[in-house]
Design a protein that fits this description.
The protein is mainly alpha-helical. Helices cover about 45% and strands about 0% of the residues. The protein has a domain of about 25 residues. The chain starts with 13 loop residues before the first helix and ends in a 34-residue tail after the last helix. Keywords: Membrane, Transmembrane, Transmembrane helix.
Length: about 90
């Protein structure tokens, strides 16, 4: 299947050509400025977030309970795989 866009006809009038060129340049300029503004906001926001994280005091590590018990452990199922034996999954 062949995909082709319809051909864009350029205007023949010189003034219309100049206006379309100026309109295209203006659209490209607006997109460029918008992209730079978004990039600047993201950069400043990232720097502020990094500064807040650096100056914020860190949390103390979790302490064992008063009875001296170990902290809670996540449980799960596991399978011991021995080397030298093929394993079917």
């Amino acid at each position: 299947m062949y995909f082709a866009l319809p051909s864009l006809r350029r205007p023949r009038h010189p003034l219309a050509r100049a206006l379309s060129l100026l309109l295209g340049a203006a659209v490209l300029g607006v997109l460029l400025v918008f992209g730079l503004v978004v990039a600047g906001v993201l950069l400043v926001g990232g720097l502020v977030l990094l500064a807040v994280r650096q100056w914020k005091p860190t949390r103390a590590p979790a302490r064992p309970t008063a009875s001296g018990a170990q902290p809670a452990v996540l449980e799960g199922e596991f399978v011991v795989i021995r080397q030298g034996r093929p394993v079917a999954h």
